[in-house]
Every structure is written in C-alpha cells, then in structure tokens.
C-alpha cells in the first residue's frame, strides 16, 4: 500500500502536466473554375474511411511505410464527417448544383447519389498527403451509373507540422471533388 499511493500520485501528476492535444481543421481552399454536371441535385453519402483514418488522430507514414498516429494532434472534426462536408461544399461551389451530405435535407429527392470509399488517407513520408480509393455515382432518375478510382495527393509544406497536413488534406479533397465531377456526374 505504501508504494501504491506514491505511484498513483506520480501518475496523476504526469497526467496533469501533459499538454492537451491540439485540433486541426482542414484549411479552406478555393474551389476553382466551374464544372458542368448532368444533375441539379446530388446527395453525398458519408465517406467511408479505412479503420486507422476513422480516429481523431492525424496519421503519418514513417520511413519504411509504417503508419503512426500522433495523439497530440487531432482533427477538429470527425474525419468521415469532415471529408464528406468538404466534398459536398466543393461540389456545390463549382457545379452550381444543389449538393448536400446525407441525410438529404430537401423535400424533393436528389437526382443522383455519390458514394466515396477511401482506402488510403495519410500524410506520406514523401511529403505529400495522399487520398486513394473508389467512388460511385448512382442515378436515382434516368441516366447511367458510374464508378471510378482515384489517387490524389497534395504537397505538405516543409516543416509545417500538423497544420501543413491539414492544409494539404483540404487541397487533396478539393482535387478529389473536381476529379469526380469532371469524370462521373
């Protein structure tokens, strides 16, 4: 019992002295030039992320390919929700269509639905933020369904840390939205 109380006190002291984690939001980036699409109403389903990327921690690729989480650097929003919202906002901005993340908030139904399944979302050891996976555009009205793969990346500013990773993620998600719109909606 004599050793337990000092050990417990020391443990609590260490916990109290550790700095709280810092949260990073994806920096806003301009959507860019207008892209015409064949629907005026698009629902974006919640983006599916790999298990590691579903957590709040910002993941980095170490030399040798191992993925490591930084518990002191967290995303400001749930990663799946954040990427879904970013995709929706960019698609709305450069298509002019009525775009919303699920659940569809309008009375009239969407004309198409976008499903994105991410297989990789990581700050690479090569200094690039990488997003890869597959997307599906399902027509709810007349038209052809479409699917495709994606592999987008954006540079992480040297020595920018987690804020640079968040900025690069924002650019990669914007580029993904542009790619999907120009190829499959």
Automatic annotation (TrEMBL):
<feature type="domain" description="ABC-type transport auxiliary lipoprotein component">
    <location>
        <begin position="39"/>
        <end position="181"/>
    </location>
</feature>
<feature type="signal peptide">
    <location>
        <begin position="1"/>
        <end position="25"/>
    </location>
</feature>
<dbReference type="Pfam" id="PF03886">
    <property type="entry name" value="ABC_trans_aux"/>
</dbReference>
<protein>
    <submittedName>
        <fullName>Membrane integrity-associated transporter subunit PqiC</fullName>
    </submittedName>
</protein>
<dbReference type="InterPro" id="IPR005586">
    <property type="entry name" value="ABC_trans_aux"/>
</dbReference>
<keyword id="KW-0732">Signal</keyword>
